[in-house]
Amino acid sequence: MSNVRSMYAREEASKRVLLLMSPSTYRAGAFLSAAQQLQLEVVVGIDLPESLADYWHVPLGIDFSDTPTSVRTITDYAREHPITAILSVDDSASELAAQACAALGLPHNSPGAAEAARDKLLMRRLMSEGGAPCPVFRDFSLQEAPEEIAQRVSYPCVLKPRRLSGSRGVIRANNPAEFLQAFYRLKRIVLSEGYAEEETTFLVEDFIPGVEVALEGILTHGALKVLTLFDKPDPLDGPFFEETIYTTPSRLSQEVQQAIAACVSTAASALGLRHGPVHAELRVNESGPWMLEIAGRSIGGLCSTILEFGSGMCLEELILRHAIGEEIQTLERDTHATGVMMIPIPSAGILKGVTGVEEAAAVPLITGVEITAKVHHPLVPLPEGASYLGFIFARGETPVQVEEALRQAHRCLHFEIRREIPVLSMR
């Protein structure tokens, strides 16, 4: 295996990859390590003003919010330093990556497809037109009277901001009174992100009951290859939709798994996604699979740690090989059951301490416990927050064993949170 890797390294040594990432991304280390393994030259483009980029000695400081200027910065850089591929490590720069690739003639999803994968309203419209089953939806302006909207929608429903990720601002309402509370909370979250009230709309969708799953895949010329299907054993019924446990392989029947893959393939085609990784979220009930969302990126956080392909290839290495045009001989996942828990934040406050980490790590089948929240820093739970306390990883013979190990390890952890952050009012 080492000889094979050395051969690949010599072949790819002259290839340069631009990785676009936010300063707070969890995924920088995994991609940089995989690129080093492949001996690829990596340039990191970070979402920072030029002055801060110079101060922190960042090779390429880019303002992700100013796409035209950022595309010019990237193309100017590429004239001096030819680029083989551009990857957005997370959602934050997926549209910029598509625009820059289009300008440089590099393989990537089209800018229109990248936009559709980020804008939930455009996503829903294209999915509906393309035949991918998805919830009934309507969009409303933040300036509309919520009392009137509350009388025009059906219940239970889910309110969603169009562009926030990680379930931020996603709130279930079961009746008009809950709708009003959810509306003002969502509005406050969206406006805090700098969106203008008079220009911003949000979605109201029918709530789809059922179990939730996540599909990890990769597209080549529009053809979907499923890398793995995750079960989410915890019920995600609201009012907020904080994800916790992912386990794989899925416990669903092969027939249902095939229907899920077909649904994701239809959705990707409807949006125009044709190249690179995809991460899709679906609900499954007696009517079959329903598309919730599909993103033109791989799974977030540190969750990719549990995935291994071929002879020890991590997900990031697989994505990089695909991005530079290398044909991947095998995409088969390791046969062990694996799982990850994204440790939820139980309440707002200041994290004062964490105990029980060693006990959690000692639980059989647990392969790692990583606390990513920083002591003496504020914690903000969903729907306002966008992060977790950390991650627990497990590996075993069956998904049931892995799930129980994750729950047992979580019970070992204790977080001291001082409630020093006032709870914001609903209005």
Structural commentary:
Among the domains are: 2-109, Rossmann fold; 136-206, ATP-grasp fold, A domain (Dna Ligase, domain 1, 2-Layer Sandwich); 336-427, ATP-grasp fold, B domain (D-amino Acid Aminotransferase, Chain A, domain 1, 2-Layer Sandwich). The termini are far apart. It has a 4-stranded parallel beta sheet, with helices on both faces. The chain is built from 13 helices and 21 strands. It has 427 residues and is of the alpha+beta class.
Question: What is the CATH topology classification name of the domain at 2-109?
Answer: Rossmann fold
| Discrete helix count | 13
Distance between the amino and carboxyl termini: 60 Å
- Beta-strand percentage? 25-35%
CATH class of the domain at 2-109: Alpha Beta
Using only C-alpha atoms, the radius of gyration works out to: 22 Å
The counted number of beta strands is 21
Q: State the low-pLDDT regions, or none.
A: 1-13, 423-427
Write the CATH architecture name of the domain at 2-109: 3-Layer(aba) Sandwich
Largest sheet: 4 strands, parallel
Q: Describe the strand arrangement of the main beta sheet, using strand numbers.
A: 3-2-1-4
Average pLDDT for all residues: 91
What is this entry, summarized?
Keywords: ATP-binding, Ligase, Nucleotide-binding. The chain is 32% helix and 28% strand.
List keywords for this structure.
427 residues, alpha+beta, Rossmann fold, Dna Ligase, domain 1, D-amino Acid Aminotransferase, Chain A, domain 1, four-stranded parallel sheet, 32% helix, disordered C terminus, metal ion binding, ligase, nucleotide-binding, ATP-binding, LAL_C2
